[in-house]
């Protein structure tokens, strides 16, 4: 049993973390930190939690957190975490950060795509990229996790094994990704209002979305050479779910069965990764509400191309669920603890 | 640990029962019965269950069920259960039936509203109406539960305490209820297709919906005299959720605090019932994905009337969740076992 | 051909008025007034209008409007219209105001429900309540219209003929109304964000919504005595549409055919009012995208009660469409001009 | 004024054609043919049309149609049109066929992708592919139109000018397309039920969708050499709208302004095609409810690639609207007649 705090508990990634931890067998939530809602019960802000978790939000106090928490999840607005995390790290807390700040191996990549200097480059060296299925060993031995982005997790899980196995070319990779609106977080921007989103769809930030850099970092590691991808995010009128349709040219003749074997070998014993048989294409409601990622594919023989479809719940495997999975690995808990719900389907 | 079978496992109420039981600490699912999908894995029909529950559906065989199950949930199409349940009952199985067949105290009421003779009136006498918060003791001591309807649960929970306390009149009770589309079940009727339902709303079966009779049976018991209600169901473009807005004339001057006290006394220690303070009106996403019922109210002093708003997840507290709660009571398990997830909110 | 200006053109009611007028055979849009978007083309703000209407928004200048417009629609935020309308009225412009300011016969009612003193009570006396089917003659002869609210139009159209014909009692009238989210206007409030609204439903402002007073004013006129109603608005996850389910006790034995005749006589030759035969209940997509109101009903003989279901498109018959219909009446145009599109259904 | 019949009037493409024609200034609807609803008023099946169009559906009678119609729209289930169209053609009727049967230049392409022999290859030679902006002259002079598919129109409009201008390579073209559910037509298949579609998204028929062949036919003409594309359709939880995100490698250095000029020159004076300035990406609600196609693009200089986003209303420019536009061209009417409504936005 460990004591856990959540910083930024009232945003959508934060509250999803709270929801998952509420019934975690090894966790006691001791602190919820919220600047905007200090003094309010979390169940007043999210009445879904009434009778389940009724503790009060408090303002940030590093000493108080250090005294009352073993591990913290930081789901803070961009630009706030940089002032907070070094202090928490010094106190010896384990930290799982849901922002983009600690996801990079190379500070220059961060600075190029985020357009600002990195707040604490010395910590960046110590942090581990928390894509559980790729870096489980490193995760076990770190105190600071850069929890991956939602688009990122979905895309990397789909393409990493194929690049590692050298069965696709590194040029002409296209990732056409579709996200539910909760990916934008708890926001009052008009763009995310019901009337603007429902019965609407659109692409945005074409060629410039920050997650591109995170995807390229990992796929380049997989390929052993630089990989650059077209990444196009789309806003889709649903709440939860990311769907990445990935296109790559096959580097040689390979059958569907061989592709399936590459995936199944790579993700052997990975509970949360489900590989579909050739031609079976996943739907986003097969994973919604769960920490699963489903990966299906179709080989287009006419064009010598593979189309891989990957889907996760953006709030779970794409944020809070993976964060909990990272905690489970760091603390030596059962990796499925608190994450053993099947997808909702309905 | 008991062995459980689900008959009609592939309908929406059935599969929701399966989903809830998949992680129940005291249950092993041993049989899934489906006429339409015999020989198929449940995870082929609902790929959301892949890796969680991959057992095959089998056709109905009463002897086989009796041998391999201690308790069954029957979520069968109307008209099928009548041929099945007596046989299972004779074998000594505990049965939780999700149809309307065993919800009535008076066979005549059933026959009037269902327009047909009751299949097994002798069992009707032995069955218990499974509204857990009202009949916990009887549920503990029966082998056959008539699990309440979705509209019914939501409406009765809202009005029972007020009638019991005689603070509202028995005349002029109006229940205006709104349901998500999953209430119609897994159906291919054009009426429930996406294009006909989305951006649409409608009332249906005004003054004739069968659940009216179930509501009136219980409210009459509460009042100690006959209660008849206007019950109007509406179809609303969302998946999960029922929202009942109930109108009743106050029989005397009573304050919001007094009403709150009546509810809180009546539902004392009921984990799944959450009473809002006066004037706080619940939203359906405060309960969606959970077994909770939220009840809020507003007194209209100008008119001497109370408006009670009650909301549940129609598939959980309105069907599968209440069925599991009934099982927990019957078997002496922790009543929250398998039902301890907070609502999703998002 | 008249010159028309729209004040508050960029809100949802405003832009819907613009859309309807864009193809009106007798109208030239000469001015779009928007404080927030001065200097921007309307088609930049609403790209749906590109190539259809590309004129620039300008700031408010009463003299300029008076010179360039014969008639104005005012769809201004509450509190702004009061400073503007008297000036426009003095200049001799015809005005159709979509706010609540000019809908009342009795300034005291306004002040009670709006909680503030009326901005220009002297104009209130000159204004006409613009419910076209009730006040066509008066509308023809005024320069100032108080365009009815959305909930209001839907509810009054449903109940006025029955009260007029004295077939229902004035006590125990319940109006349970459901609205799409566009009724909240173009707003950045979190409550109306996609993730908070979709898969959610709720009642709000029970017993206190301002439209109650507007409904009671008209229904009291119909009845010839004071009528007070329970009015409960609900937020429903769709864009367009209002659905009012109205309950009233029948004052004597009356058949469905008689009720139908009362409605058909009352709305004889009314193009935009469609009365359903007894027992046929309308759906909101039968009117969405059009200026029609559909009214259906069911008599509950068991309870001596009638349930009337009325539905309109809140942005059209509930706002912009009725405003255009009012203009058509005031100017002597064909009442259907600019409003002759069938409902979308899909 | 011409007399028009619609065969298959009660499907979604059929009824949308009826809706658009209901107010067309040059059209009188004289016959609605429906096998399933013979003898029923169209306004009983689609009550949205009550008071607008109340004529009865009749069964198919070629002689009767020939006598009472000048032109017919055929929106028949696949496999039915082949038995009907030759007879109508012989009678000298003008025909606009919304099926795939008359969209091909090469019968072999049809037979390969449809997996069956063509019903009337001799008529295929006489038919014209009804993509108005590409084949206006031919459309003017034919009696038989193969009205393009929805995905097809959206994709071809986006890529044709770029291939024609040789600024993109013919290899590695990817079209990732998203469609609203109405694209599936009026169907009772479970896959298109509300509960299966809402809060869900998925790709389907990867590498095998028939529209691929139609797209390749036209893009090959544009390029002057064979073009093969990856085409991936997706089902998205909205009613109306297609969004095609198209990826192509630039064949040389070209600026956004140059691309914009290529598009604007190609679509000069085309009322229904709206080209966005570089970097402005369209949203599907900018066209929903209208016959417009919006095309925007972003050049990715890092990768030497262009991403083109094209969006139409699948039921209008992707079916019924384009069919009406074809009629307008064939008959010498104003091309915008009956199609001059702005998009709904809301």
Briefly say what this structure is.
Four copies of one chain form a homotetramer. Chain A contains twelve helices and 14 strands.
Instruction: Report the mean per-residue pLDDT of chain A as an integer.
Output: 97
Measured distance between first and last alpha carbons of chain A = 33 Å
* General form of chain A: globular
Record the strand order, biggest sheet of chain A.
Answer: 3-2-1-4-5-7-6
Share in helix of chain A: 25-40%
Q: What quaternary form is this?
A: homotetramer
Structure annotation, total helices of chain A: 12
Strand content of chain A: 15-25%
Would you give an account of this structure?
Four copies of one chain form a homotetramer. The first copy, chain A, has 346 residues and is α/β, with parallel strands linked by helices. Chain A contains twelve helices and 14 strands. In chain A, the strands form two sheets. In chain A, strands 3-2-1-4-5-7-6 form a seven-stranded parallel sheet, with helices on both faces. In chain A, strands 9-10-8-11-14-13-12 form a seven-stranded mixed sheet. Chains in contact: A-B, A-C, A-D, B-C, B-D, C-D.
Keywords:
346 residues; globular; homotetramer; 7-stranded mixed beta sheet; alpha/beta; 7-stranded parallel beta sheet; 12 helices
What order do the helices and strands come in, and which of them pair?
4 copies of one chain form a homotetramer.
Chain A: E1 2-7, H1 12-22, E2 27-33, H2 42-45, E3 57-58, H3 62-68, E4 71-74, H4 81-90, E5 94-97, H5 107-114, H6 121-126, E6 128-129, H7 132-140, E7 144-146, H8 150-164, E8 173-179, H9 194-197, E9 202-203, H10 211-223, E10 229-235, E11 242-249, H11 256-266, E12 273-275, E13 293-300, E14 305-312, H12 316-331
Parallel strand pairs in A: 1-2, 1-4, 2-3, 4-5, 5-7, 6-7, 8-10, 12-13
Antiparallel strand pairs in A: 8-11, 9-10, 11-14, 13-14
Helix pairs in contact in A: 1-12, 7-12, 8-10
